[in-house]
C-alpha cells in the first residue's frame, strides 16, 4: 500500500513484479543521509541505497527495533538483520557502526532467524547510550539491499524525527 500524503510519481520499469514496498522506520530517531554514515560500505552505498536513523531512547535508555516491513528474517544478529520480503526484496538494518565487535553486549533479541514477522513486530531492543559510551557510532543504516537507487524514494528529509513504524522509504 502506498504511503499516505501527497501523491508521488509512479515508477515503471522496476526489476520486481511486485507493487511498491513501503519501508517503515525500524526505530524512533532522527533521519540522516546514508552518505553521512561513518562507514564507507554504507556511505558509498556498496550494499545498496537507503537512509540512516540516529536513535532516540526511552527513559530506561532502551531503543526498540521493529520490523520495517512484513517478511522473513533471513539473517539475524544482535546488531543487524536482513528482512526478506514476499516480493523478493531484502531490507538490511544495522544498529550502530562496528557494533559486531560488542558480541551482543547491549542488545537483546526477541525473535529468531527464519521467523515470519509482520510490519511493526518487535524484533530486538538495544542500548544506544551504552554503545556510544563504548566509543561506537549509534547511527543505524536502513538499506535496500542490492537495490537500484533509481527505484528508491526517501519519504522523509534528513534532520526530521520519525517514530518506529513511520514510512521512510518507498521501493518500486
Automatic annotation (TrEMBL):
Q: InterPro entries this protein is in?
A: Dup_hybrid_motif, PTS_EIIA_1_perm, PTS_EIIA_component
Tell me the SUPFAM superfamilies matching this sequence: Duplicated hybrid motif (SSF51261)
Q: Where does the UniProt annotation locate this protein? A: Cytoplasm
Gene3D superfamilies linked to this entry: Glucose Permease (Domain IIA)
Q: Where is the PTS EIIA type-1 domain?
A: 39-146
Q: Any idea which UniProt keywords this protein has? A: Kinase, Phosphotransferase system, Sugar transport, Transferase, Transport
Q: Name one GO cellular component term.
A: cytoplasm
Q: Signal sequence span per UniProt?
A: none
Which biological process annotations from GO are given for this protein? phosphoenolpyruvate-dependent sugar phosphotransferase system
One example of the protein's molecular function in GO is:
kinase activity
Primary location class: cytoplasm
Pfam families, sorted: PTS_EIIA_1
Q: Which residues cross the membrane?
A: none
Task: Tell me what this protein is called.
Answer: PTS glucose transporter subunit IIA
Q: Which organism is it from?
A: Oerskovia douganii
